[in-house]
């Protein structure tokens, strides 16, 4: 199974075993419906990494089709064209706005792109070694990334991953995260950290995710599936750190937690998790399917389930 963990983590070599303007006092979008019985939610969003092998061939067409399915909120990520799918921040923002889409969040690396010793670049959809442009990162290019996000009017800047293989790496990463959080506040952005499952595994007697939560005040983008795979119950995290999780990644997993599936097709109890949206402080959620065989089939199936699971506020 090829996942973003494989691409960002195994290939990039940042973490082993796994691969951005509103008020800071913003109240979560979650509200109760006119019946007083069931909550209503923000519109469904998409993490564009789902289309990593597709979008750069037809950026406009891909985004138009996403909008036609019914998705509204957009979280951008890495592009083979560089920049924002070959565009400047304001250009990409204008494209999204013209399609009725809202650019809420953007993913960046926490440290430089680096292949681990002995590992070759993964193959692209054509079977050729993947070629990507230079990728900036928070450790070395923090202010540039923040300035670009602010230029595009993005609400959240999100660290997609950061080195956590050793205790020293974790401590160094936390320093970068705290500096970025302060710089984002000055720029009018909100900053969050996105997890994989490795953050929940012990490193030199410490749990990286617990250290990040305890030693930072930034918000978190909880990937519900990777947290579950890492042995952590998302609902318990929400209760332990209420209001800390304004962003979610929503994907499903099979019973072995090895294969990614469309939402509602696997083992994760999303009804139970979405019921705690207010506790989490959720503002937006983004459907993500890492390296799917057919991204369109996947996001359509997820959308069909989410229409009932997370009814949009009228």
Structural notes for this entry:
This protein is globular. Strand 7, helix 6 and strand 8 form a beta-alpha-beta unit. Mean pLDDT is 88; it is low at 9-37. The protein has eleven helices and twelve strands. The protein has helices spanning 4-11, 59-69, 89-98, 138-152, 167-187, 208-215, 224-229, 234-240, 270-274, 277-280, 295-309; strands spanning 31-32, 39-40, 45-47, 73-76, 102-109, 156-161, 190-194, 219-223, 247-250, 252-253, 260-261, 284-287. The protein is an alpha/beta fold and 314 residues long. The strands form three sheets. An eight-stranded parallel beta barrel has the order 3-4-5-6-7-8-9-12. It has a two-stranded antiparallel sheet with strand order 1-2. Strands 10-11 form a two-stranded antiparallel sheet.
Residue-averaged pLDDT? 88
Helix content: 25-40%
**SS content category:** alpha/beta
Give the low-confidence spans.
9-37
Please report the distance between the alpha carbons of the first and last residues: 38 Å
Q: Note the total helix count.
A: 11
Radius of gyration: 18 Å
Give, in spatial order, the strands making up the sheet with the most strands.
3-4-5-6-7-8-9-12
Counting copies of identical and different chains, the oligomeric state is single chain
The total strand number stands at 12
How would you sum up the major sheet?
A: 8 strands, parallel, barrel
* Overall morphology: globular
Strand content: 5-15%
Helix and strand string, N-terminal first?
HEEEHEHEHEHEHEHHEEEHHEH
């Amino acid at each position: 199974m090829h996942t973003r963990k494989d691409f960002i983590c195994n290939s990039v070599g940042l973490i082993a075993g796994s691969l951005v303007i509103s008020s800071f006092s913003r109240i979560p979008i979650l509200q109760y419906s006119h019946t007083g019985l069931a909550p209503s939610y923000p519109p469904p969003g998409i993490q564009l990494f789902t289309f990593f092998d597709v979008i750069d061939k037809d950026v406009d067409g891909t985004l138009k089709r996403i909008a036609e399915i019914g998705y509204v909120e957009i979280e951008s990520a890495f592009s083979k064209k560089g920049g924002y799918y070959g565009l400047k921040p304001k250009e990409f923002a204008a494209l999204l706005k013209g399609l009725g889409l809202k650019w809420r969040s953007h993913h960046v690396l926490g440290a430089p792109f680096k292949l681990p010793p002995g590992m070759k670049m993964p193959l692209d959809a054509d079977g050729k070694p993947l070629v990507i442009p230079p990728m900036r990162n928070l450790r070395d290019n923090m202010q540039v990334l923040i300035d670009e996000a602010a230029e595009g009017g993005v609400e959240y800047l999100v660290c997609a991953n950061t080195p956590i293989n050793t205790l020293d790496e974790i401590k160094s990463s936390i320093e970068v995260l705290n500096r970025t959080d302060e710089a984002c506040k000055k720029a009018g952005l909100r900053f969050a950290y996105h997890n994989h499952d490795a953050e929940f595994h012990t490193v030199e007697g410490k749990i990286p995710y617990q250290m990040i939560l305890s030693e930072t005040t930034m918000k978190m983008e909880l990937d519900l599936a990777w947290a579950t795979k890492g042995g952590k119950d998302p609902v318990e995290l929400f209760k332990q750190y209420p209001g800390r999780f304004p962003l979610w990644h929503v994907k499903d997993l099979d019973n072995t937690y090895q294969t990614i599936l469309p939402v509602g097709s696997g083992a994760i109890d999303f009804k139970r998790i979405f019921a705690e949206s207010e506790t989490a402080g959720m503002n937006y959620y983004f459907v993500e399917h890492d390296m799917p065989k057919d991204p369109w089939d996947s996001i359509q199936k997820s959308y069909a389930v989410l229409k009932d699971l997370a009814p949009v506020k009228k």
